[in-house]
Amino acid sequence: MKDEILTQLNNPAQLEKMYRNNKTSFKRSFGMLYPELKGNTIADFWHERLNYESDEINWGTSRELLLVIIASLLAGIIAKLPAFLSIKEDFFYPRNIGFIVFPLLTAYFARKNKLSAGKIAFIIGATLAGVFFINFLPDTKKSDTLILSCIHLLLFLWSVLGFAFVGEIKNNHEKRLGFLKYNGDLVVMTTLILIAGAIMTGITIGLFSLIGFKIEEFYFKNVGIFGLAAAPIIGTYLTQANPQLVGKVSPVIAKLFSPLVVVMLVVYLTAIIYSGKNPYNNREFLLIFNALLVGVMAIIFFSVAETSKTTKSVAETWVLLLLSAITIIVNSVALSAILFRISEWGFTPNRAAVLGGNVLILTNLLLVTAQLFRTLSKKAEITAVGKAIAFYLPVYFVWTIIVTFIFPLVFGFK
Question: What is the 3-state secondary structure (H, E, C) of 44-55?
Fold first, then answer.
C-alpha cells in the first residue's frame, strides 16, 4: 500500500477512499512513509489526523449504552440459570461457562461489522451445535473426553468470536492480528475492571458489616456473579469505543514480558536438568509443561500482533526470535515426552489431544521462527511474521472441532 499512498499523495479524494477501505493497513503504511514525507502539507495533515487522540472518554450513543447494559444483564442471567432452574452447578458450569459471555460478544461484533444473513446463520448454527452437543454428553464421572470437550469448546467459541470480529473466512491477516490485539487489550481492560470491582466489593461488605449486616453470601451470589459476567462485555465496549485507553499499555506489556520470558525459560530449562525431574515419567509435570507452552505461545502471538503494526527495532525482533527458538525446544521436549508415554502405555483421549496440540503448536512456531529469521536477514518485512500467524489460526479452529465434537464419539465418552 505504500506505493499507492505515494502515487495518490496529491489526490485527497483517493487517499480518503484508500483510508476508508482499509484503515489499519493505511495507517501502518503511512506511518512507515511519514519520516520521508515530513514537511509535505498533505502528509502532515494526514499524520495529525491518524495520530489524533482525544483526552475525553467516548461513551457512545445512548442506544449503544443500552445494548451494553442489556447484554451485561443477559450474561448475568445466563450465569444464574442453575439457581433459576434448579440445575446442578457442577453439571452446568463446566459445560456452559463459555456461553455466558462468548455468544454476546460474538453478537456485538456481528452487529458492529454488519455481517450478512448467511454469516450470522453460520454463527448461530455453530453456537447452537455447541450448546446441544455439550449438554447432551453423558454425565459420566471421571470422563476424560468430557473434560477435553469442555475445555476445547471454549476455544471453539473463541474461534467463532474471531470469525465475527474478522467478518470473513478468507485470509485477512491484518484483521486476524487485530483480533489477537483485541484479546490482549480485553485482558488488560477486564483486569482493571475486576480490580476496581474487587475494591468496591470490599468497601461495600465492610461498610455493611459495621452496621451489623452480613451480606457476603448474598452479594457474591447475586451482585458478584453479575459483575463477573458483565466485565468482559463492558471491557470490550470500552476498548472498541476508546482504543487509546489501553492502546499504549498493551505494547509496553509486550515489550516488557517478551525478554523476561526468554530469561525465565532459559533458567527453567537449566533448572530441569539439575532437578532430576522430567515430563517423561511424571504426568503432572507434563501437564504443567504444556500449560507453560500454551502461555508462552500466547505471549508470542500477542507480541507479534503488536510488533507487526509498525516497523520495530532489530533488538525487539531478536528477542522474539530467541523466544520462539527456546519455545521450540520446550515444545520438542513436551512432544517427545508424550510420544514416549504413548509408546509405553498406548493412546488415551488426553494423550491424543496433547499430541495433536503439540504438533500444531510446533508447526506454527517453526513457521513464525522462519519468518523472524528472514526478517533479520532482510529477506522479508516484520509483517510477514504476522501473516504466518494469521494464516495458521484456522488450523486451531479445525482442531477444536475435532477434540470437542469427535473425540467423545471416537473414544466412547471415556
Answer: HHHHHHHHCCCC
Q: Provide the 3-class DSSP secondary structure of residue 279.
A: coil
* Residue type at 293 in one-letter notation: L
**Over the range 244-261, which residues count as b (16 or more CB within 10 Å of their CB) and which as e?**
ebbeeebbebbbeebbeb
Please list, in sequence order, all residues whose beta carbon lies within 8 angstroms of the beta carbon of residue 205, skipping any fewer than 6 positions away.
215, 216, 219
Distance CA 236, CA 186 (A): 6
What are the residue ranges spanned by the domains of the chain?
Answer: 2-51, 62-244, 248-410
Residues whose CB falls within 8 Å of the CB of residue 342, separated by 6 or more in sequence, listed in order: 351, 355
E strand or H helix at 254:
helix 249-275
Alpha-carbon distance 399 to 382, whole Å?
27
Assigned C-alpha cell, 68:
451494553
Rg (CA), the chain: 24
The model carries a pTM of 0.84
d(CA 317, CA 310): 12
Q: Please name the residues in contact with 315: beta carbons below 8 A apart, sequence gap of 6 or more.
A: none
Alpha carbons 159 and 172: distance in angstroms, whole number: 15
Reported confidence tier of residue 2, pLDDT bands at 50, 70, 90: low
The rounded distance, in Å, linking the Cα atoms of 177 and 286 is 30
Q: How many CB atoms lie within 10 A of CB 111?
A: 13
Rounded to whole angstroms, the Cα distance separating 138 from 215 reads 38
Is pLDDT at 57 greater than 80 in this prediction? no
3-state secondary structure of 310: coil
Q: Is 205 exposed, middle or buried (0-12, 13-18, 19+ CB in 10 A)?
A: middle
SS3 409: helix
Q: Answer yes or no: are the C-beta atoms of 29 and 16 closer than 8 Å.
A: no
Residue with cell 442453575: 82
pLDDT 10s digits, 113-167 = 889 999 999 999 999 999 999 999 988 878 899 999 999 999 999 999 999 999 8
Buried residues in 37-71 as b, exposed as e (16+ CB within 10 A) = beeeeebeebbeeeeeeeeeeeebeeebeebbeeb
Closest CA to 289 of 271, 309, 304, 315: 271
